[in-house]
Amino acid sequence: MSDQTTTLDHASANRAMRISVIDGMFGNASENMIGPFLSLFALALGATKGQIGLLAALPAFLSNSLQIPSARLTERWGQRQRLVVITSGISRLIIIPIALVPLMLEGDAAIYTFIALVTLRGLINSIGVPGWTSIMADITPRHTRGSYFGFRNVMCNLAALVGTLVAGWFIRQYDFPWGYQVSFYVALVMGLFATYFFSIIPVPPLPKRSQAAQKPVGLKAGWQAIAQHTTFRSYCFTSILWNFGVSFSSPLYSVFYRENLGGHPGFWGVVSAAGLVAGIFGHRYWGRLADRYGQKNVMLAGGIGAASVPFAWCILPRWELAVVAEFFSGFCWSGYNLAAFNLILEITPDDSRTTYIGVYNTMAGLASSIGPLIGGYLADAYGLLLVIIISGILRWLGYFAFKHNVPAPSETQLRWSDLIPLNQEMRLTQKLQEWKSKDSDLTE
User: CATH top-level class for 10-204+218-430?
Assistant: First the structure.
């Protein structure tokens, strides 16, 4: 694995990272005016819990099935930025027919057309994912990725917060379908701005691949990639269990909020916003820890909370307190996701990163597509509460599988006391004083 981080000059790298923040802000504002409300939109169309599970599962299954072919397309074409721009632009334009479904169709025809359009949107957008991830790796210096993505995620969460609150306001004011439609169309505009800004990011050419990396990339080559790298293989396999457990209940929390707790659909925007606010604080907090103590340590610390989220939902006595559960979830997930993204960049080789990312996304994504199908079916048959409890158990199994089976790069030990912000600052001050003392001794 190369130690290279970016082939851009200093000025171009800084410009690329600045524009990436703007792109991310528009993109997250756009997605959060749509994503958190898709299940509620389907519920208003008359969808069952099983159909809502299908709404989550089908896009995930088809999108992740394309990850290895998408990686192959990216590496063969070489124009990864153009590919991301084309796929993101088309996927965002599909928002138009999605918003028009309630005006054109009714009943099961409306529900299944809605699911098909959401699936098509996710499918097209997923083609650019391996290229996008490799671009992010190539424009960011490795030693500052934790801090940079922590800052970027804070700004993205701020934009997502605004988008979620605005969408919730539209839905409260105009109800179904007009509130959703206005929100979706504003999201379309924001998304097209994101596509434009991504198109002007300075991007280095794909690193020259080794002879082994130039072999055709398919399912067989993907399995060979897994077999050759023990850390990568272990990470993939533990992610299957983790992602299955997470996705088992993830599309059903809004339904649990609406049906079991009796919450108002318009207030769901405030609930989602609570998680984003937590993420704003969390990304800065976890980003520093990731740079100092390593990605696995941060995934383990944040993962404790992420695995416990289902049980937090189970004990909520009132729908207003869903804000508390989502705040807790957002803070813990911000650390886990930040470190998980950085870890996959660390354990994949520079010369064929898109291939490895494609393999990982395929395996983890297929697990994520099966989970909602089974979860939705069980929710219809036995109730949402059982599904959420099973999700919590599966998450903890995935957590321990990751902890004991994925070796980490050389990392500083993270103690519980290191999670306290005051202790972090005190230790940083001590380190600086030690370095100054060493410098003084050398000068003398």
Answer: mainly alpha
